Amino acid sequence: MGDTDETSRPGVTLVRADEPVTPPGGPRPDAAERVVPLRRPGRWIATVVVLVVFAQIVHGLITNPFFQWDRFGYWFVRPVVLEGLLITLKVTALAGVFGLLGGVVLALCRLSRSPVLQSMSWIYIWLFRSVPLIVLLLFLYNFSALYPTLGLGIPFGPTFVEFNESALATEIVIAVVGLGLNESAYAAEVVRGGILSVDHGQHEAAAALGLPRRYQFRRIVAPQALRSIVPNYVNQLINLIKATSLVFYVSLLDLFGQVQSLGSTYPGDIVPLLIVATVWYVILTSLVSVVQYYVERYFARGAVRTMPLTPLQKLRAGIAELRGRIAAGAVR
Amino acid sequence: MTTDASPDSTTGARGGTSPSSGDAFDLLADVRPAAVEVHGAHKWFGTNHVLAGIDLTVRPGQVAVVLGPSGSGKSTLLRTVNHLEKLDRGHVSINGELIGVRRHGTRLKELGARAILRQRAGIGFVFQNFNLFPHLTALENVAAAPVATGRAGRAEARALAATLLERVGLADKEDAFPRQLSGGQQQRVAIARALALRPGVILFDEPTSALDPELVGEVLGVIEDLASTGTTLVVVTHEIGFARKVADLVVFLDHGVVVEQGTPTEVLDHPRHPRTREFLAKVL
Which fold does the domain A66-301 belong to in CATH? Predict the structure, then answer.
């Protein structure tokens, strides 16, 4: 680990005096003037300690019969668990999309010059950030008792369209609406923060060029705002994945819900079942993080002088270098 | 905001000479409307009277250099010309067209956002801090406005942008992002970007103030080339040497009024107003 990257640094590789090599960067400095990097024994000790502790934890996880890894393997891909996973994915995706769209609209309202739009948006964000998600979900669950029909019309005047709420509000709709309302309030602040982070000079330059308003937002402001929106919104999204476990309380059996109900049917398997849920949540979060990495990279266009390599490119470069070194060794 | 009449509201050109009187181009200039005309311009920031009645006429093809101490209102004046700042009183017109407002009886009514954006597309503006779009390459920065305003197709705009970058000496930097360029190079891209809409007038707001001293020359060189092509330029700057060399009209501003204006020789070599003398003594 440490030694490979030391030898790969051009200034540090050992050069025998009888071997006149000219590296790509020009002739090497006089051997007498060579800068030797500082030795760091503390770092080595810390590395060893951390590795030992890590190995111990892994050993404990594998050998402790309490975890029942055979049962974990059995439940991990059961159709009933996968059905729950599908619900989790569906609810997350829908609430995530509605949350972001709602967030963009709310953020634009808050940044608009209209005092009415500003304060309505502020009130919405204030309200839905204040109400605990579980309270909101339970409230929506009982909503049909409060308002049996939902209609569209003029306040205190005639109604044009009317829905029967109990027909409309299936569990999944309640879950998506509840999470979406909550998510959009947070997303609004994320989006607003992103838009505010764009330098004022950019707005002025776009205005001075006479770029149409839509173009200014879509091509100039949004791409720069997204640089700070993406990491923050992904944070939100990861929270959302885990918050979907609350839809259990509106009798929707998502991943956690299925695991929970299986646990009450097979009380002996409760621990492996919880691990099944945990591992699936970890996998979902990891997938989102990978997507985040590439999306962020895309929006970093122009923000850094040289793009850092992606892990995949690093791996390839590493393999190529190793091959080169082996080949060189074989020749020698 | 109070807009009560201040006593010296329309006497902006106090002690000023009429610009380039006796100029050989007078005959021509009388026929064409002024390229830039500022009339009775007043602007308050809160209680601060930043522009206290400014009158200014720049004829087509002229290069006007606006000088003045910091806080004299010169940047604000420039920014009112393309309506980045609104005037509280008075008006600006470019080639005879009112900017940002329309006449409504004796009053001036502000135009809608769309109409203002359309007018701005005909006025180039170069900022002190370049304000290039960091997520677009040099070529994309220059090509953006012609495409967005529907004046050119994508391919045509890119070809135009390439030509303009070549003109400012950056043909090899088409694909560079602004952060990969030096300050001087960025400002030259910004000038190319302003030229892409083929504006009749280009405004420069201290174009070299954010640059390292050794980079000032390359930017002034580009502006000088522009001046020789007959484009009307209004330049706010501290570069007295540049004013002497390139300007047709030098305007000295202090405390929101034009203290004096005239040819470089008149204003820079034989200033008549003590405030001008004092300022020149400090910067020269």
Answer: MetI-like fold (1.10.3720)
